[in-house]
Design brief:
The complex is a heterotrimer of chains A (299), B (412) and C (280). Chain A has 299 residues and is an all-alpha fold. Chain A is 75% helix and 1% strand. Chain B is flat. Chain C has 280 residues and is of the alpha/beta class. Helix content of chain C is 31%, strand content 25%. Chain C contains 10 helices and 11 strands. Chain C has helices at 64-70, 101-107, 122-132, 144-154, 158-161, 174-186, 204-217, 230-236, 259-264, 269-275; strands at residues 24-35, 38-49, 53-57, 81-89, 92-93, 108-111, 135-136, 192-196, 222-226, 239-245, 251-258. In chain C, helix 4 (144-154) packs across helix 6 (174-186). The two termini of chain C are 21 Å apart. The chains are: A mainly alpha (299), B mainly alpha (412), C alpha/beta (280). Chains in contact: A-B, A-C, B-C. Chain A binds chain C through residues 103-104, 178, 180-191, 194, 198-199, 202-203, and chain C through 72, 74, 77, 79, 102-103, 105-106, 109-110, 112, 114, 116-119, 128-129, 132-133, 181, 184-185, 188.
């Protein structure tokens, strides 16, 4: 009987292919950092452009050589704020309701509905912002106060967009809290609300924080809603009823037009892109850290 | 003995606490319905924009061309061509014949030309569905006063024409055919590229990779890629596929250049960009599916002398297929709904010809919706609503397929 | 018939008779508890005396946990569970429409099988329930610090934790955690303490401590304890109820009486079979 190792060329070939697939995603990341970074470096290397001016300048006017990213960042911030205004209270309330109050039947009805909401393309949300949310804001606050394109409308609709995300991540965190803790609280004469809010919620707080951070990252990177509803043209303003372009909105508008490669306009988009990439990556890493630390404590 | 044991004082506060509990319960419950309300509003808003009264004015009154009570639509192709020849200028007729001889077109295409070139029908005003249902009388009055020559008709912006017509500058004739073909071509490339690599990557990570730092980096990296905004993938696609690999993606090195483009903004670039975008989703879903295959099955297979790949191929993949396919379909529907990355890599704003190979220019359904929505004329916004319904129906049927697969193939 | 004396019996229990109506803590009548369509407990009637330790014993799955959880309406937390019959506490049916389960649980506290302290400090663990239920520190009454100390002393934990009250309750050993849970329950001043296999997750020494504690607490509180350990039931309880499963897997009460009598002179052959280890 021969127990020697057999040479299996087929297996080796397949293993090599699988290995290639495994590391393929690394190439994607390298591609993002290298290609976008390269163009961004070309931008920062251009005459009259400095990183400091880019990060602190309050005017973005490529025609006159003004490249201050703050107007784009502030409007991104305003839209994110309005998105969270919707997504945090409603998302957490729905999560608490589903995990602590709802019967299985209700859960099985609500969850698919939220999944449908999560599956709708963002361009449809953008349409909704422009044709529904904006008219409503204009009729509430007055058409002279609210511009046709405004950051509030885009932000609020983005809140609806990430509602399913925040709900399902928070609900997972709440459901992961052991039943024995709930029993302990109820056994001490706590009401359902006291159990949910004072015992279960604090025990799930890291998972919920992670959900919110992922939600923020998603909103910061969201494009079509702001492209359709938040307005064209960078504007340094804190007024949510004015139109102002966000980072993503600017990238998509400029690159959608006729743009010559190797121009400073073209390169400047990549500077915004790499900033956006690092902001969202940072948020995602923070959220993952929180979740993994939470897991260690949980076990 | 330590301190004297005193009885503690408890104040009865239960009423207050229960009232509080009830208030918050109502808030939680109402919030839950808010999700449903949002979804309903979203759908109603689209329906509201898709149907409703439209005032259509025409240069030539359609009734004047009707012969002996036979409506225009029922006329034969020959009769319609005669109408065109009688009513348009010689120059326009020559131009039409140059595009494609009228005799070679179908009856309905000829009819469209009659509507577009002879009547020169235009939308003068539109009303929403809610308006049309509730203020019928005042709409009639308004239309009669402002657009005396126009026909007021109850119009549906979703109609067979919307699917069969290419783009047009006249919203009454515009359709999404080129966009649907564009979407299909692009998704085909996306699947061909992303499915094998994604599933291969999942198999590598679940079945082959040991817990080394390098493999942990791969896993973290995939999770991070899943969170990268889609527009960043668009920029990556622009930099790599459209510019660096232009000779390949434009088809130049294959000698198949579309004379109208001759650059890398092609279906191939779009498909590859979306493949990178959905890859992390496919990997994550496939890994979950592979993880769910119980270890006992692998051990049984090894126990009868199978190699690792034989085990994977004959036991793990069949067991995980259901989950892998469902995950892939969800990833495809994500790709079908993506807009931003395709705008960035350069979708065409106006094409009337169907794409016929992977080096063609492209547009897709969501981009069509985006462009129509940004038009200032309200009728284009109605058209966009019609296109949204088409898009949502496509996505809905893909999800239905996913659910069907999930239920059909039994789980371990 | 007299059984060989194999159990160490709680001395006090030999002197007593069946509980009298005037000193009852809980009186259950014709209790049937269902999970969906499954009947987990069938026709149980039971009179539990005040200031005594009553043990519920029986093979696993006989419904003893379900029964003890029904005494403070904890079983309601399981979706699909419902109950027929009545449970009188101070002469009032706790399942009546007008009764608030929160109030019931505050008067009838519970200690669980696995120690489940809150992920808060030791101090907070004890103070939380009391604060919730309207604890007030006024002249002539203990303030919170004193009350926490008192409860920890009663739970025989004070000496071990007095220097680290601000540390997490989870940092304690299993036995200490369980005594913390007992202190937490005492802190809301219940009249009855239900214990659902309180020592099953603990080592023998920690178990012994909990048993000693039960004997001390019984001077102030009524204790009902579920245990699968018959030696423990014999050692700590005054009364013992033996439950088992009938043909359709519902829990039924077979025999109830003084612990001494149940363990030395069972009237039912099933009880005898169980405590002599022949089945169960």
């Amino acid at each position: 009987m021969n127990l020697k190792k057999k040479h299996r060329p087929g297996e080796t070939f397949i293993q090599a292919f699988l290995y290639f697939c495994g590391i393929f995603s690394i190439f994607t990341t390298i591609g993002i950092v290298f290609e976008i970074g390269k163009e961004a470096l070309l931008f920062f290397g251009s005459p009259g452009v400095s990183l400091w001016e880019f990060l602190t300048g309050t005017t973005w006017q490529p025609q006159v050589g003004e490249f201050g990213v703050l107007p784009l960042v502030t409007s991104t911030f305003i839209t994110t704020f309005f998105a969270m205004l919707i997504a945090i209270p409603f998302g957490l309330a729905i999560a608490i309701y589903l995990s602590e109050y709802a019967t299985i039947k209700v859960k099985n009805t609500i969850k698919p509905i939220l999944e449908v909401l999560a599956g709708i393309p963002t361009v449809v949300y953008g349409y909704f912002a422009l044709s529904f949310m904006t008219p409503i804001l204009r009729s509430i606050f007055g058409a002279d106060v609210v511009d046709i394109y405004n950051t509030a409308s885009a932000g609020l609709v983005m809140g609806i967009l990430i509602l399913p995300l925040i709900t399902s991540m928070s609900e997972d965190a709440l459901s992961a809290v052991p039943r024995s803790l709930r029993e302990a609280a109820v056994g001490l004469g706590a009401t359902k609300l006291e159990t949910a809010v004072k015992v279960v919620f604090p025990a799930a707080i890291s998972g919920i924080a992670a959900a919110i951070i992922v939600g923020i990252s998603r909103v910061v990177g969201e494009t079509m809603i702001v492209a359709l509803a938040a307005g064209a043209g960078p504007k340094f303003t804190f007024n949510p009823f004015e139109g102002a372009e966000t980072m993503t909105g600017h990238i998509v508008r400029i690159s959608g037009g006729d743009l010559s490669y190797d121009s400073i306009d073209y390169n400047s988009l990549f500077a915004i892109g790499i900033l956006l990439f690092f902001i969202t990556l940072g948020l995602n890493i923070i959220s993952q850290r929180i979740v993994s630390r939470f897991r260690e404590v949980g076990e | 003995m330590s301190k004297p044991k005193l009885k503690p004082l408890f104040i009865d506060n239960l009423k207050l606490r229960n009232a509080n509990a009830n208030r918050w319960k109502i808030f939680f419950q109402v919030s839950t319905y808010v999700g449903i309300i949002f979804l309903t509003l979203l759908l109603l808003n689209i329906l509201n924009q898709t149907f409703g009264y439209v005032a259509i004015s025409s240069k030539v009154d359609p009734d004047s061309l009707t012969k002996e009570g036979v409506s225009l639509e029922q006329l034969s192709k020959k009769e319609l061509i005669t109408i065109i020849q009688d009513n348009v200028s010689a120059g326009l007729l020559r131009q039409l014949q140059r595009e494609m001889p009228l005799e070679e077109k179908s009856q309905s295409e000829v009819y469209d030309i009659v509507v577009e070139k002879v009547f020169e029908s235009e939308v003068s005003a539109t009303w929403t569905l809610a308006d049309s249902l509730m203020n019928k009388v005042s709409i009639r009055a308004e239309a009669a006063e402002k657009y005396p020559k126009a026909d007021l008709v109850f119009y549906s912006w979703v109609k067979p024409h919307l699917l069969s017509n290419p783009q047009s500058s006249n919203p009454l004739n515009a359709g999404v055919r080129t966009a649907i073909f564009g979407s299909l071509w692009i998704v085909l490339i996306t699947v061909i590229v992303a499915f094998p690599i994604g599933v291969g990557s999942a198999i590598y990570l679940e079945e082959y990779a040991s817990n080394t730092w390098f493999n942990r980096i791969i896993q973290t990296n995939i999770n991070n890629l899943a969170g990268v905004p889609s527009i960043i993938y668009g920029m990556l696609g622009l930099a790599i596929f459209v510019r660096t690999l232009e000779p390949i993606t434009s088809g130049a090195i294959f000698g198949s250049v579309d004379p109208t483009t001759a650059n890398g903004r092609t279906i191939l670039s779009a498909g590859l960009t979306l493949a990178l975008l959905v890859l992390p989703l496919i990997i994550i879903n496939a890994r979950e599916a592979i993880k769910a295959v119980p270890d006992s099955i692998r051990q049984a297979s090894y126990g009868v002398g199978a190699t690792r790949w034989q085990t994977t191929w004959s036991h793990v993949i069949p067991g995980a297929l259901r989950g892998i396919l469902t995950g892939t379909i969800l990833a495809i529907s994500r790709a079908m709904g993506e807009t931003a990355p395709l705008v960035v890599i350069g979708a065409s704003t106006y094409i009337v010809f169907d794409p016929n190979n992977i080096f063609s220019k492209f547009t897709v359904l969501p981009i069509q919706i985006y462009q129509w929505t940004t038009r200032p004329q309200p009728e284009f916004r109605n058209l966009a609503a019609g296109a949204i319904i088409v898009l949502m129906l496509i996505l809905l049927s893909m999800n239905a397929i996913a659910i069907y697969i999930r239920n059909k193939y039994r789980k371990y | 018939m007299q059984l060989p004396f194999i159990y160490e019996i709680n001395i006090e229990s030999t002197e007593m008779t069946l509980p009298q109506n005037n000193s009852l803590a809980i009186e259950a009548t014709n209790l049937n508890i269902y999970y969906g369509t499954f009947r987990a407990v069938k026709d149980v009637s039971l009179k539990i005396p005040q200031n005594k330790v009553t043990a519920l014993i029986g093979p696993s799955g006989c419904g003893k946990s379900t029964l003890i959880r029904s005494f403070n309406r904890m079983n309601e937390l399981v979706p699909g569970s419902h109950l027929k019959g009545e449970i009188l506490f101070r002469g009032e049916n706790i399942y009546a429409q007008t009764v608030d389960p929160v109030e019931v649980r505050r008067k009838i506290g519970m200690v669980f099988q696995k120690p489940n302290p809150f992920p808060k400090s030791i101090y907070e663990n004890v103070a939380w329930g009391a604060k919730l239920n309207g604890f007030k520190s006024e002249l002539g009454y203990p303030n919170m610090d004193e009350w926490v100390e008192q409860c920890l002393r009663k739970a025989a934990l004070w000496d071990e934790v007095k220097d680290k009250l601000d540390q997490s309750g989870l940092s304690l050993s299993g036995g200490q955690q369980q005594r913390l849970c007992i202190a937490r329950t005492i802190a809301i001043q219940p009249e009855i303490i239900l214990m659902d296999e309180p020592a099953s997750a603990l080592d023998p020494i920690a178990t012994l401590k909990i048993e000693e504690l039960m004997r001390e607490l019984v001077e102030e509180y009524t204790i009902i304890v579920v245990t699968h350990n018959m030696h423990q039931a014999a050692r700590v309880s005054d009364y013992t109820a033996f439950l088992t499963m009938d043909e359709d897997r519902s829990g039924v009460l077979v025999e109830y009486g003084q612990t001494n009598q149940i363990f030395t002179n069972p009237r039912d052959s099933r009880t005898e079979g169980y405590i002599t280890g022949r089945y169960g």
